[in-house]
What does this fold into?
Amino acid sequence: MISVEEALAFVLNSTQNFGIEEIPFIKSVGRILKEEIVADRDFPPFNRVAMDGIAIDYNEFSSRLRSNRHLSFEIEGIQAAGSEQITLKNKENCIEVMTGAVLPNNANTVIRYEDVTIENGFATITIDAINEHQNIHQKGKDGKVDDVLITENTKISAAEIGVLATVGKSFVKVAKQPKVMIISTGDELVGVDEIPLEHQIRRSNVFTLISLLERLNIPSETDHITDDKPVLKSKIKTYLQEYDVLLFSGAVSKGKFDFLPEVFEELGIEKLFHKVAQRPGKPFWFGKTTNCNVFGFPGNPISTFVNCLAYFYPWYYKSINLKVEEETATLAENVTFKPDLVYFLQVKLASKNGNLMATPIQGNGSGDLASLVNADAFIQLPSSKSEFQSGEVFKIIRYR
It folds into this structure.
């Protein structure tokens, strides 16, 4: 049995490169960018009007204000958004301008409609304190041509989508997702839409794993294989050639029908470890071939859940070169845990006085699937001690 730290090191040293693909930018939310996005022109590309109103020459306004002349400006025309730039021909006049329009030539200040009155073709300014260049988004203020706007290995969100559209990136290079098969085993499992007999339960772990992978935008396929060793061996042999990752739930412990460790060995999968000093999830099996990583999670629901978060997620992040910051929280209650194991304790999270507090949730062991609904995360308590005090800070793995 190895430590959690050793197990994670084995997993992270077995990462894969799935390659790069080019996809429509609008389909790229949640994917990992694999190119730099640079400005194809200045941003904004022109002096952009930021308020509906009138555009004037600031020096003319200042001169009138100093000499107590009337602040009425004859309207020469209208500069609409999307129209070619027009010119203020007489500095004593003004041009009506719309938000998003290019600033007219010979104008350098915009006064919003709320601060003027318009009557008989004249706009009268009703305030006497304005600033030169106000309400103008200056050309190139957000970025110059060839500036890097989005760095490589950024996770694409709605914010990045807007930038991609602005620079005309209709297709974008992203990290390919791994091809994943999720496999459940066990004769006691029946389908979700079936009525189980007294000795049976419905399959749930496989759908938990599907959902955990969907959070990473990873599509997956599933199979359920009965506790028949020849069938297991035949199917797994095929899947090892067809998929980048196999995720198993169950059949890796010491039960009489837990055939997977034997099957893995017979198929030539290199075992990197089996059993980790943690609770829940101790019987975790991990190995690899030249082209496929194999995660053998224990069958208890909480074990499968926490091991996917604690090991598969970091493995995936490193494989696609995405840096994810570790998160911590403050323990809200005293906890005693005497076994010499790392304890992944379910907690409810709440913010208090600017601190993230973690309140333990009492469950009924690693088979208590329903307890996940009442928690937000796992707090990782180290094996170096058995008494954990309220106020101590530990790493958390959140799933909400």
Observations:
- The chain has a mean pLDDT of 91.
